[in-house]
Design a protein that fits this description.
Layout lengths: L3 H12 L14 H4 L10 H73 L1 H12 L5 E2 L10 E2 L1
Antiparallel strand pairs: 1-2
Length: 149
């Protein structure tokens, strides 16, 4: 019985080939592609024969392409994702860490300069402008705006 468990797990993995629903946008079912409205209908035999031709052509063409091109594509994709992982692990992450370390002192210096110059200036301007009031009057003449301070 223990021998059946791994086989059933492998069988389930082979049956569900898109467990994360990555390719739900690919609709290759006859009913999702071809539809005849009421006013334009082909004979029943032509409709059924077209459906069968579509199914066989789709299945055989996909199988041929998958057998011929899927292994090289898988090899290239595997190498590509390996290169991507290597680049992220060994290049990008260490470089970003270095930039964070180098910029930490610059950040402290810029924050200190802003606290010493910009913040008091902004507070002073805010204190001056605190009592400014702007009123718009609706009864003012149309040709000129009236601003009361």
């Amino acid at each position: 019985m223990a021998a059946n468990k791994p086989e059933s797990g492998i069988q389930e993995a082979l049956e569900d080939r898109d467990p994360n629903n990555l390719n739900q946008h690919v609709q290759i079912v006859w009913d999702d592609i071809i539809g005849e409205p009421e006013g334009a209908r082909s004979p029943e035999c032509a409709w059924r024969l077209s459906n069968v031709c579509f199914q066989y052509a789709r299945n055989w063409c996909y199988m041929c392409l998958a057998v011929i091109l899927a292994p090289p594509c898988a090899l290239l994709l595997g190498c590509g994702f390996a290169c991507l992982a290597f680049e992220q692990i060994w290049c990008t992450a260490p470089c970003l860490r270095c930039v964070k370390i180098y910029c930490a002192s610059l950040r402290t210096m810029v924050a200190s300069c802003m606290a010493a110059t910009l913040v008091p200036t902004a507070e002073a301007i805010g204190h001056i402008c605190r009592h400014v009031r702007v009123n718009f009057r609706k009864d003012a003449p149309e040709e000129k705006d009236l601003l009361v301070i």
